[in-house]
Structures are given as structure tokens and as C-alpha cells.
Specification:
By secondary structure, the protein is an alpha/beta fold. The protein has helices at about 5-10, 150-160, 180-190, 200-210, 225-235, 245-255, 285-290, 305-320, 335-340, and strands at about 10-20, 35-40, 50-60, 90-100, 110-115, 120-125, 130, 170-175, 195-200, 215-220, 240, 255-265, 295, 325-330, 350-355. It is built from nine helices and 15 strands. α7 (about 285-290) links the parallel β12 and β13. The radius of gyration is 22 Å and the shape is globular.
Length: about 350
């Protein structure tokens, strides 16, 4: 084998990447399922396909839905499964280091919904969502938090699926200190609603009341009788429930909904690590009929035509400081697996982002 020339060495980078070694049908994925390896990527222009760019990955978004792509089966969220032995992908921010696309130049910061969990990658232009305005005054991680999957999910749930929400409506948000919940509660408050959240610690209860403006909140670890808790916090019933957890909390909510209540189903994190036969059933669905309740699941891919409206509104809220954000920046791509597991613990607060280097 001939030696690599000095010029060629300058155009090849080593990139660490996480790949799917084996599916994890239940439980939290471990190093048996996700593994880190090193590959080489050429930066030479003649090795890059037309209409592709080479990105240096800067930030990776960690979101609970990623878990549903690692089970080896299509149920629940029906997300496309990662292919075995291939790098996993997520929402992320990258810097263009080589480009064969006219609208993207070297140095541009871009957002992708399918960025490999890797230090460098080659992506087609259609995988890029937008170029980031460097003069917008918005921190890069916010593009995968407030302006990314969590913010978009909260916005669709409150602004679209639950509409019309009247001022003064009683709104309940589960997983209220999580990446989606923190934005959903604030958006409901901007509509003039009374907002209560459930979360997993007294620290989080204080956080969502003091920093996110929730009217009230409770710790579901200490108030374990959810039916009694909802009677206390919603003496006049629930008009809107944004469900992030499913299971027993969803069942309890159905005993307290008002007539014509709306329940946007954003996620069911309490059930993600279980096969369907082990998940908690909901026994009181008849309340949906008797109270004419609208319960609707939603996937962000079905609302991409609204992304522009969302981004414009949320950028305005950010700049006017009407929306607060809680970011946890984890340094190093090697922390991906550990950080993914942390999403399913009650210690997780706000939005978790991997800063790749």
C-alpha cells in the first residue's frame, strides 16, 4: 500500500461516531447496543458528491424519541429504526467545512434534522433545514432547543392541536421541567391560561414556578395519589392536558377533564423502555365519550409546513425574553450514550445538548 501524501493527510480527518450495534427492545440502551468507533472522512472536493456538504458537528440534540428508533420494532411512535452497524442520527447544528452546494459556503452554520452523531459527516443538501443567521444574537444550542424539536413539539401541541385555547383555561403539563414541558407551559401562560405542571423533584417544582412562570406544580414522587393531586390543583377541572408521560398520569387526568377538553399527546416517556404488554393501560377512556374530549396524537413530521410560523414566533419570544430556556450542555461526543440514558431519570432538567468537541 502506497504511503498517503502530505497533501492527502491534510484532506482526511478522523471522526468518532456512534453506531447501532444491536437493538434494545426494552430497558435503557447500553454499550451492548450503541458503540463508538473511529472512521476517516476525506475533505477533498473530488471525493464529495454533488449537492453535498461536509459538516463539522458542533451540537447534538438529545430527545426521548431517539429511544423509539433503537427497539428493532415499529410500534408506538412508529419511528423508522436505525439500521444495524450504521451511525445513528439526531437533530443538530454543524459548521460547513466543504461544500458542493451553491447556497452553502465554508464556515456557514446550519441545522439538520438528520445529522449523524459524529464529529464530521457528509450530508446531502436536502438534509439541511436552514442556515443560521450569525447576527441574530441567538446562542447556537437554542436552535436545537427553543427553536428545535422540543420547542416545535410544545408549539404544535399548544398552538395547533389544542387550539382554540381561551384565556383563563386550566392547563396541565406533565414532565413540566423537561425539554418540551418547559416551553409548553410558557406558551400557555402567554395565552393567559392558568398552568400547573407535574415533575419529579421539589427542585424542579421550584424551577418551573420561578423560572418558567407556572402558577403551580407538584412532585409526583411525593404526591403519588395522582387522582387526589389533580383534585387539589384543578378544583375546576382540566381544559387542556399536554401529555408527555402517558400511563397512570394520563388515566388520572381523564377523571378530571372538563367537557370538550383537549389532550394533545406529545409523548409517553414513562412507557418508552417497555414492550407494549408491560405498559400501563388506561381504564377510563369512556370519559372521552361522555365529556366529548378530543385526544390527538401528533408527529412533528406532519406539521413541517408550520415550521416557518413556529420559528418566527419563537425567535420573537426569545429576543423579547418572553420565553426562558434551561440548557444542560454535556461536553464530548463520548458522553452520548450516558446522556441518552439520563433522559429517562427524574434527575433530568430542561434540554440536554451534546457539545461534540
Amino acid at each position: 500500500m502506497s504511503e498517503i501524501s502530505e497533501e492527502m493527510r491534510m484532506t482526511v480527518v478522523e471522526s468518532r461516531e456512534w453506531y447501532m450495534a444491536a437493538y434494545a427492545p426494552e430497558g435503557v440502551p447500553t454499550s451492548d447496543h450503541l458503540k463508538l468507533r473511529t472512521v476517516k472522512i476525506s475533505l477533498a472536493l473530488d471525493s464529495i458528491p454533488d449537492q453535498h456538504v461536509v459538516l463539522e458537528t458542533l451540537f447534538i440534540s438529545l430527545d426521548p424519541y431517539l429511544r423509539s428508533r433503537m427497539t428493532g420494532r415499529e410500534d408506538g411512535l412508529y419511528s423508522p429504526q436505525y439500521n444495524l452497524n450504521e451511525v445513528v442520527s439526531a437533530f443538530g447544528v454543524g459548521r460547513v467545512v466543504r461544500s458542493k452546494v451553491s447556497i452553502y459556503g465554508e464556515g456557514d452554520m446550519v441545522i439538520s434534522g438528520f445529522i449523524p452523531v459524529a464529529e464530521y459527516c457528509v450530508l446531502p443538501s436536502q438534509a439541511l433545514i436552514r442556515k443560521i443567521d450569525a447576527d441574530a444574537g441567538i446562542l447556537l444550542p437554542e436552535y436545537i432547543s427553543t427553536l428545535g424539536v422540543p420547542g416545535f413539539a410544545a408549539w404544535i401541541g399548544i398552538q395547533v392541536v389544542a387550539e382554540p385555547i381561551k384565556p383563563g383555561s386550566n392547563v396541565f403539563i406533565s414532565a413540566a421541567a423537561g425539554a418540551v414541558g418547559m416551553y409548553a407551559g410558557q406558551l400557555a401562560k402567554l395565552k393567559g391560561c392558568r398552568v400547573v405542571g407535574s415533575t419529579g423533584s421539589d427542585e424542579k417544582v421550584r424551577l418551573i414556578k420561578e423560572e418558567f412562570g407556572y402558577d403551580d406544580a407538584f412532585n409526583y414522587h411525593t404526591e403519588t395519589d395522582y387522582d387526589a393531586a389533580l383534585s387539589k390543583y384543578f378544583p375546576n377541572g382540566i381544559d387542556v392536558y399536554l401529555d408527555n408521560v402517558g400511563g397512570e398520569m394520563l388515566e388520572a387526568v381523564l377523571n378530571h377533564v372538563n367537557r370538550h377538553a383537549k389532550i394533545p399527546l406529545c409523548g409517553m416517556i414513562s412507557e418508552y423502555n417497555k414492550v407494549w404488554t408491560e405498559r400501563k393501560g388506561v381504564r377510563n377512556l369512556l370519559n372521552l365519550v361522555g365529556k366529548e374530549v378530543k385526544m390527538q396524537g401528533f408527529l412533528l413530521g406532519s406539521y413541517l409546513d408550520r415550521f416557518g410560523d413556529f420559528a418566527k414566533e419563537m425567535e420573537s419570544h426569545l429576543k423579547e425574553r418572553k420565553i426562558n430556556s434551561k440548557l444542560k450542555i454535556v461536553h464530548g461526543i463520548d458522553k452520548f450514550l450516558e446522556s441518552l440514558g439520563s433522559l429517562f431519570t427524574s434527575s433530568n432538567i430542561g434540554k440536554v445538548v451534546i457539545q461534540v468537541k
